[in-house]
Design goal:
The complex is a heterodimer.
Chain A (H helix, E strand, L loop, with lengths): L7 E10 L4 E7 L9 E6 L3 E11 L2 E7 L3 H6 L7 E8 L12 E7 L3 H13 L6 E8 L8 H10 L1 E6 L9 E2 L17 E6 L2 H13 L7 E4 L15 E2 L2 E2 H4 L2 E3 H4 L5
Helix pairs in contact in A: 2-3
Chain B lengths: L1 E5 H14 E9 L10 E6 L24 E8 L2 E3 L7 E7 H16 L5 H7 L2 E6 L10 H4 L9 E6 L2 E6 L2 H8 L4 E2 L29 H6 L7 H5 L6 E8 L2 E11 L20 H20 L9 H5 L6 H12 L1
Parallel strand pairs in B: 2-6, 6-7, 7-8
Antiparallel strand pairs in B: 1-9, 1-10, 2-3, 4-5, 4-12, 8-9, 11-12
The chains are: A alpha/beta, B alpha+beta.
Chain lengths: ~260, ~325
Amino acid sequence: MKNEYIPFSSQVKEIIPHTDTEYTFRMSFSGDVKPGQFFEVSIPKYGEAPISVSGIGEGTVDLTIRKVGRVTNKIFEHYEGNSLLMRGPYGNGFDIEKFKGRDVVIIAGGTGLSPVKGIVDYFSQHPQDASSTTLIAGFKSPDDILFKQDFENWEKTLHVIKTVDSAPESYQGKTGMVTKYIPDLPIGDISNTVFITVGPPVMIKFTIIEILKRGIPEENIWISHERKMCCGLGKCGHCKMDSTYICLDGPVFNYADGKNLID
Amino acid sequence: MGYQITRETANRVFEQLKQSYDIFAPKFFSGEGCFSDTDIIRYGKVNTLDEIQWEHRSDYSFKESLFAINETLFYFTENETTVPAGPEKKIMIFLKSCDLHALKRLDAIYLENGPEDFYYKRLREKAVFVLMGCEETCATGFCASMGTNRTEQYDMYLKISGDTVLADVKSQELQTYFQNTDGRTCEVTPDYVTENAEKVTLPQHLSVDSYQNPIWEEYGSRCIGCGRCNFACPTCTCFTMQDILYRDNENVGERRRVWASCQVDGYTEIAGGVDFRKTQGQRMRFKVMHKIYDFEKRFGYPMCVGCGRCDAICPEYISYANLINKLSKEEA
């Protein structure tokens, strides 16, 4: 019988720094994995943390990690050539098939961009697979912007709105919350438009209010929940909301179902 | 198959069982209660029938015999991991009907919800269960209300009555221990209570709207978030991961899982400091709804087995049974 708790060792292939506290770790991994799924990543003796997949390559997965806790602080001390322990992937992830042929709007806040980045990458590489693709990404300040290199590529093929909550006057880019850009978003056929939104709980709440104001049916909105997860296996209980285990049944939910999940 | 044997014979059978089984049962620990000069009944390994506490409900449930309060998942040395060896002997657990019903709930989480749990399963496969009857109701239990007052799902039922011991042995393997004794076969039916002093009516119309009920906050101001209700509960299964390193060699350590409580700070806190349930009222609501509403939505039967331990152990005298009855009354 398989012992699901035993992690495997994965080589850190490359490190891509975004900000002082947020780096992408490109890890060796071969196996099936989808955007929106997550791994339990650990440093022996410091503990485990659930981290979303922020990119999928040939024999690699990207994990974008913010230095905010005991485990992630330690991970930052492990640089290229080293390895991390991982188990997973866990969770349902996003099903890109559901978005093909539609007008896709992705709204992400901060590191919330990680779980949806695989979708953005896909439609950036295969723009003809969607009727249109829009990315609205919000960050706290210009210093907090993630995936700068990727934005340059995405801007070539997608409609990209990159905004920061606040910035010095000299800042050239867009400012304001992501919600500011929803009312004026050009929307064609409402029934053929899908929204995907991931970010801090407060951001998701207000983003959805704005999306619903545009007449988008709840069934056309997808969200991903970030919760404490110690096992990823439906056992530890921390991520449960109502009868739903975010680690098993999520973290990706259609809003028509996800709206009934209350902490 | 039912057997009647003498106490002396039962002691000999017990000695034989001990060759193959580690036997866990409720035991009396004098002076080891939470407060000074208080006693406690909890599970431990027993060596004689006399050590078993038959009459009183244990303060803590049998569950620690199947998953330890803290359990080492593996040891690490650099990047090598070593899983601790499983139990060599089989395990025999003495328990009452409410707890045997709780076992089904533990199995639901550890064996059915997602992949099977390696550590739970390797103990569970080796475990047999001995039912202890209830001649009288315990003080706070409400098993009759929950339909958990009787069970047929035991491997063996045992009752000591003076110098006579009655056994109903369902497991063929266990029958071999009785077949060559000087006892006689007879019909044995387990004792069970049909009525409790505490009666509980489950609300029938709970929904996500019940989250808004102001009743939760009433309890929020009384609960001190100690988590004892969870640790005493036979159906609570939550745990948190914990890594430790050895002080004399930091390259060596272990990963453990440790019982967790949804009432205690940190249960829903994620990196960056977001805490999804901050108030004790919200945590009370989360616990109660799990016990009588959302577990049933997922698995088809309520989680709570009505053992009443949570009410007996609460230092703030919060009555969960009362709370459920209040919810029901509101519906009427």
